Amino acid sequence: MPELSSPTTATGVEPHSPRPRFEVADIVRTYGEAFRATHPVSPEQARVLRAIGQCRTAALGGHVEACETCGVECISYNSCRNRHCPKCQGAARAKWLAAEQALLLPVPYFHLVFTLPHQLNPLLRVNQRALYGLVFQAAAQTLQEFAHDPKHLGAELGITAVLHTWGQTLTEHVHVHCIVTGGGLSAQGTQWRPSRRRFLFAVQALSRVFRGKYLAGLSRLQAQRRLRFVGASAVLAEERTWGAFLQQLHRRPWVVYSKPPFGGPAQALKYLSRYTHRVAISNARLVCVGDGVVRFRYKDYAAGATTKVMELRAEEFLRRFLLHVVPPHFVRIRHFGLLANRLRQDKLTRCRQLLAVAAAAAVAALPLRTTEPAAAGPAPTAAALCPACGVGRLRLIELLAPHRGHPP
Description:
The chain is α+β, with helices and mostly antiparallel strands. 32% of the residues lie in helices and 20% in strands. A hairpin with a 2-residue loop joins strand 10 (286-290) and strand 11 (293-300). Helix 3 (90-100) packs antiparallel against helix 8 (265-276). The longest helix has 21 residues, at 128-148.
């Protein structure tokens, strides 16, 4: 029985969209073992490499279906479902979208991005859980501080924030995307206060407050001895060097980016879904893999978002890719303000009442389609049509146990 990384028929016809010519899994399978032998890899990074290498192969098991009309057999291997795998995010994104629709309010939404300066990268690399959590906290507190001020809004916002740690070339570029309600609930809960139509708050002012809050939090963590200083950040353990480092970060401007509001809540959520389950690089961006080299497309925003091709040695590609493996159970999508879990339903219900819109009408219908194959489970969908004849239904005929001897 052939070992295939995506569902395939006996005639070579794939029942899903065509598989990209090259995949991150190919790089892991070909070069991953040599990389692990020569580079330090954390337990979580090792799990990610193993999962991606085994994804949709015999190592994870699967099932066989046969067409009731033409008899063609289709083999589908199971997905790893690791959140860092480029092939396993379609189903997770669709499930997230379905849940988030119930949280939408019938108001405009704004998109803001809070970015950390690259001077922090060596420290971030060895303090991911603490410092990634701090960027969520600083961004949300900054937005709420402006929103609570009567001079700006005098209300509580609803915020959904998503962490990204990469740039287009897989280098470290830590930032959070925030989708924010264009208005908020007054402190007494008696008014919905809309924001200005074209912008939420001035980005220069947001940048200064964000910088202050993040650096204050950083200083607290250092004073509490909750930071590690390892590798390139080891020099910061010395008190004088640490003080100079903080002064340098205080002097430079930090970047906060804001886009015009969306046309409505459904558009905002659909836009955010592009970011929620994205991984450092998609398989579609890979151009060529071979001879120890990986080539991939990227957008050069310094050159007007021109699409270019970068070439890296395979070990450097894997090193950069693994920089973006987040700690186990770290939550990359968080809600704040009106959307915080504790009083979410009560506050959203009150907002809808004030906006004179029934709760059911606030849920916009979004098509939950994805170009990625859904994660394969132990059983196929009963309504699947044969990819060969297009007429017959596929029927489960065999479950395939995981093949433990299959290489990662």
